[in-house]
Amino acid sequence: MQKIIAEMRAEGIHVRDEDIARLSPLKFAHINFHGRYSFALPAEVQGGQLRSTRKPEGASTTI
Known about the structure:
With 63 residues, the chain is mainly α. The protein has three helices and no strands.
């Protein structure tokens, strides 16, 4: 999340600190508190790199 926030700010997108304080990965369905985790990692991630962020067509640069 830190990399995404830094990238958004570098692109000139205003990201409020109050909003960052409320971010949590726990709202995502793939977070499981009761079992094992299984992830299929792309080759770039297996090599120690972070994958590039997705930029949907027509995405707005304002929040």
